[in-house]
Amino acid sequence: MGRGRIRGLAVSDVRFPTSVAQHGSDAMHPDPDYSAAYVVIETDAPDGLKGCGFTFTLGKGTEVVISAVHALSIHIINKDLDDIISDFRGFYRQLTSDGQLRWIGPEKGAVHLAAAAILNAVWDLWAKQEGKPLWKLLVDMDPKQLLSCIDFRYITDALTEEEAFSYTTSCAWLGYPDHCLKQLCTEALKDGWTRFKVKVGNDLQDDIRRCKLVREMIGPENILLLDANQRWEVKEAIDWVTELAEFKPLWIEEPTSPDDILGHATIAKALAPLGIGVATGEQCHNRVMFKQFLQAQALSYLQVDSCRLASVNENLSVLLMAKKFQIPVCPHAGGVGLCELVQHLIIFDYISVSGSLENRMCEYVDHLHEHFKYPVVIMNASYMPPQEAGYSSEMKEDSVKEYLFPQGEVWQKFSCS
Amino acid sequence: MGRGRIRGLAVSDVRFPTSVAQHGSDAMHPDPDYSAAYVVIETDAPDGLKGCGFTFTLGKGTEVVISAVHALSIHIINKDLDDIISDFRGFYRQLTSDGQLRWIGPEKGAVHLAAAAILNAVWDLWAKQEGKPLWKLLVDMDPKQLLSCIDFRYITDALTEEEAFSYTTSCAWLGYPDHCLKQLCTEALKDGWTRFKVKVGNDLQDDIRRCKLVREMIGPENILLLDANQRWEVKEAIDWVTELAEFKPLWIEEPTSPDDILGHATIAKALAPLGIGVATGEQCHNRVMFKQFLQAQALSYLQVDSCRLASVNENLSVLLMAKKFQIPVCPHAGGVGLCELVQHLIIFDYISVSGSLENRMCEYVDHLHEHFKYPVVIMNASYMPPQEAGYSSEMKEDSVKEYLFPQGEVWQKFSCS
């Protein structure tokens, strides 16, 4: 029995009015409405399974991404899922290199976010058909098949397919997945919340006061993280963070433009003697950028975003490069459903690639999970490995209906008031 | 009398079916339909002037950019043009840093192209109100006002406003614009077509054969340029171009991913002893990327694109950085209306910034100019400075109507056939 032919793709503009309560606001994004361009694909297979995927957005602009999803959909409609999976690298290349659409990227911006949403749906469907959670689908794959999902274009000077092969196989010592999981859970259970993030960058005196307060509250044994949300120039970042060094933060996150690799390298070099690392990546738009951040030693903590990179395929290439450059991956999460997705990636990374929990952490925000069919499970401040088949990316139908923009009940209320 | 309040913004999806005749195809873009997201803004001022701007696209995806134009339009509708111009930096920042929309960029992809189209229309309108071609508006500005149009965010480690000020004033020795123009024209008149570009990257033996042929045809005194349209990995680029070095090309254009600054630097370093420079920039998405290309000595020829960078504002910052790093600017042109726009930028660059024609050239493709109200004038293979007020960005109404996608006559014919 085949996997079926993709016969339909539906995309919804789902927005949560989080700006009303100022959830998730920071120096650069004062009023986000956490949103998603939510894709559902269906096949003609008798299994009746649907693949659900999305990309995260902040309200306005979701309709732009949706327009890009429609534009890309010609590459998936009527395709046989078997053909996609058997040449996933080729399909990925087709989607990200459309001769006309790549002009408005390439591999960045709305069109890349749209590719992420579509590919996330494909991965979800594949995992559901296999009856496995996505992380297990990845963990169980033989290295050759795993690598065949990755487009190595433009990164072969940092990582070749042959090298990547050695990384995936040398990690096999970690052995049987369930055993590793137990270890993962044991370590997790010992762990209460121990990391605290302070947003900085608006006012130095204010930052000093708040950092002092937090450090006193959490004591010297817990971890303090700083996040500037791209607020500074390069020199400004160095000066500002130097003033905060006495509070011993582990990292400064997003000190400047997400495009400024050399700027981050300068900052990282200046802050290293103070014991402060640089974390970035949530707005790093593709593997070529991550490659350079790693080559230039511009980051100490790599924060992939499951919905900005083009799905599992591109995330895999970044996890493997991080392994080579010995940089811990600490995914960006929060938003809408990012926690649901990244948990699969970090579990895979731990079991099959890095084999280490040292300096690794994954953001968690207790928000909007109720709209997902299989929400994350957190126990003692740790993600519990999901057991349900798929990528945990499926939203509840009622939620999609209610929050659909602008027709949904929630938004109709706003327009009437 | 004020400049008026922006009371309307219209955006059209204008596509030319160039893929039918394979115009403009290359290794990565096999079937482009040269297109534009074309913006017209109107004010309530009695002058009745319209500002016209656009960004260039390749067909599919134009609708995505248009969706982004609509999303951004809230920042310009009902704004007073005087307020925009008197704080152009602030307006630029507002447009490129919308708290929700920046997530799908930031400053890249569809949303940045949309910002370019809108800002191009603002510049066109401003120049028309002043009764000057855009290049003259720029040339006549005092340096302080000129710099007040530029957002220096994220580039101050390479170029501060103070430094930029010295560049714009120290060039005043070039003196009276008309005088310079005469010189420009005199030099231009002596100049027949002397530069020949060969597209490479598909097949090495084929490239060797064609380069040999072209070099024999043009003789040793003319210039041979190579363009790989992002075809290669880093090492591949070095090896391939080394094989073509005997034909003495001046540059290799776009050897690899437009995002790969460090890769370009490696290529540039390897090819320098062969006397071959690296040219890139047509898909370089913002000033932060150009800054790093310059800092890393990753390019020898800087090819700005008037419609990918966010209009004159961002192009100015790049021209000034190029001046500091002593890199000649050779704009990308062709497409739809890119020649019409960039001519203003290179004339300004020559008169007020670089003061040099050495190693400078600007692409020209004789294509689609007939759809513009003030098409470029080429004499003896050189651009003639435009005399009409504005940014030469206005399309003929009939052309917009006829090529409107998908309703226009031209596209209706395709859908019927």
TrEMBL record, chains A, B:
Transmembrane segments: none annotated. Residues 178-274 form the Mandelate racemase/muconate lactonizing enzyme C-terminal domain. It comes from the Eukaryota. Keywords: Lyase, Magnesium, Metal-binding. Its EC number is 4.2.1.68. SUPFAM superfamilies: Enolase C-terminal domain-like, Enolase N-terminal domain-like. CDD domains: rTSbeta_L-fuconate_dehydratase (cd03324). InterPro entries: Enolase-like_C_sf, Enolase-like_N, Enolase_C-like, L-fuconate_dehydratase, Mandel_Rmase/mucon_lact_enz_CS, Mandelate_racemase_C, Mandelate_racemase_N_dom, RHMD-like. GO terms for biological process: amino acid catabolic process; carbohydrate catabolic process. It holds the Pfam family MR_MLE_C. Gene3D superfamilies: Enolase-like C-terminal domain (3.20.20.120), Enolase-like, N-terminal domain (3.30.390.10). It catalyses: L-fuconate = 2-dehydro-3-deoxy-L-fuconate + H2O. It is an enzyme of class 4 (lyase). One of its GO terms (molecular function) is magnesium ion binding. The keyword DNA-binding does not apply. Belongs to the mandelate racemase/muconate lactonizing enzyme family. ENOSF1 subfamily. This is Mitochondrial enolase superfamily member 1. It comes from Naja naja (Indian cobra). The gene is ENOSF1.
